[in-house]
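ingest -> validate -> predict -> emit
validate: passed (alphabet ok, no gaps, 195 aa)
predict: started
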Amino acid sequence: MTDASILSRERAPHRRDAGATRSAILDAAKAQFARLGYDHAGLRDIAAEAGVDVALVKRYFGGKEGLFTEALKASFQSDRLREWNRATFARDIATMMADSPSDEARTHRFQFLLRAATSPTTAPLLNLAIQERFLEPIRDWLGGDDAQPRARVLAAVFIGFLVERLIRGEALAGRERDIFIAHAATTFEGLLREA
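emit:
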């Protein structure tokens, strides 16, 4: 091997997988925003957690607000709404709410959203993301003349159950579980019906 080929190898730019880098930055941002909130999370810390230079964060997202907005959007998996089966939805959701929050990534995502809701800086950004990525898909899934207010109530009830499950931290058992599931399923079934 010649000196010229060694030098050309050393100078060859390292190709980065833009999609993987962007994803790593978003994951780090969601974790930092969940732990610290918007005001205390720093771009340098997010970049360090993602294993990238802070300049890449700015390049991909424009800054902290852009990164936060994209992290919010990525936290809503609205495509999963299409998988909901109307016939089993109420019981499936009630059963899920009776279980413990075992999915750590989902728990962090929800904590991130709760922190966003309590900050005057981020609450308006969260409101926009909820409208676009959560309420509109639920409204479309529900259909009917009163889909918008029904979607809002369904989202509020769903979030309330998520908070209760997060605080409880463990699965319900025995008779309490059975009663909880029955009442929660009835609540969700009522929200699926048009008035």
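The chain has ten helices and no strands.
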